[in-house]
């Protein structure tokens, strides 16, 4: 069977599609660029008949090597499946192809007076298909939820080339098993997504953005819990520790205060008279924890603060390109305890551990700042990962909040999930992919 879909086996193309943001590399044998579900089905059937591994790929922004191909695999790129097919303002949903960039979709909706809440830090680069595969979140997940909460319907292709449609166009539907929610977050191991129906929301009337600087990390954590306990639900409640702040100011100076221990970036949205009252209460809570607070005076000041937050990852990468980046979650009430534990672990090991992330929902990105060129130190840093995961689980948390499992966390999955549950998951994988060809090695070792 000849492959009639645009593809390449040129070494330079294979090299470009052999890695993702995790820094790990694979060796694919072929890269294909389908433009329709039928073309995806052709590639899947071609690979299935030849027993070739198939690896779906969006923009390669994943942090756990979910898009890193197995040796000899066929990479299915979604970059030419990049159209917004329908925007329905009456039913508040849209149909998109998986290669649409999140930020492009956000701007399309904003121009019509609507918004799509999931907003990963990589929104200007990451694809909606990749967001679905990883169940991506972002700062606004605190109030509005994650990708799974917005996916209504999926068109997808099974490994043998069959095309399926899951979910409904309506806001309710309970006929049969919920295959849509199963596919969301499955990291490309069950099917290749070719169309997505997403719900969206009216744009909030107003937004207020605050920043609070704390002299103590644990005080920042306590303030987070108190804000939520007060009955106020911010749309974002972001955390950066002192090393993050210093790194950002060195990388892209924006005027953040650096002689402090932590900051919270807090955003409220809704009716102006409501969020004005909520903002005053949030400021009062933060000041009770001895924070120095500022309110963004206009949209330019607001964007400046968000530019700082989104600069954290590249700023830390510049300091330590080989850093280990883990994505963990604990119940909000345990956040101060977790941050204190990481600070202690950093002091005991002599390896800097830098933290930032979505404090409002207990989701922190933990960066172990080790250089791969220092083999002894890097090995020691890798050993810290298990200690961090053990502490997180002891606090009632999870070892991955929004980065998935991929390759990098597969060795740790049994720390969190029992053997019986893992075997059930393996059984589902066999039903969808009896030959084990779709994104092999991901999630399960």
Description:
This protein has 445 residues and is α+β, with helices and mostly antiparallel strands. The protein folds into 4 domains: 7-77, Uridine Diphospho-n-acetylenolpyruvylglucosamine Reductase, domain 2; 84-202, Uridine Diphospho-n-acetylenolpyruvylglucosamine Reductase, domain 3; 206-313, Alpha-Beta Plaits, CATH 3.30.70.3450; 316-404, Alpha-Beta Plaits (2-Layer Sandwich). It is built from 15 helices and 18 strands. The protein has helices at 11-16, 37-49, 102-110, 128-134, 141-144, 179-183, 217-229, 242-251, 272-288, 299-310, 312-319, 335-349, 375-394, 413-416, 419-432, and strands at 7-8, 30-32, 54-57, 74-77, 84-88, 93-96, 114-115, 151-157, 163-167, 192-199, 201-202, 206-214, 236-241, 262-270, 292-295, 324-329, 353-358, 363-368. The strands form 4 sheets. It has a 7-stranded antiparallel β-sheet with strand order 15-12-14-13-17-18-16, sandwiched between helices. The protein has a 5-stranded antiparallel β-sheet with strand order 5-6-10-8-9. Strands 1-2-4-3 form a 4-stranded mixed β-sheet, with helices on one face. A hairpin with a 4-residue loop joins strand 17 and strand 18. Helix 8 packs across helix 11. It is globular and about 70 Å long. The model has no long low-confidence stretch (mean pLDDT 95).
Which spans have pLDDT < 50 for at least 5 consecutive residues?
none
Looking across the biggest beta sheet, what order are the strands in?
A: 15-12-14-13-17-18-16
What would the CATH topology of the largest domain be? Uridine Diphospho-n-acetylenolpyruvylglucosamine Reductase, domain 3
CATH class of the largest domain: Alpha Beta
Number of helices: 15
Percent in strands: 15-25%
| Major sheet description | 7 strands, antiparallel
CATH architecture of the largest domain: 2-Layer Sandwich
| Total domain count | 4
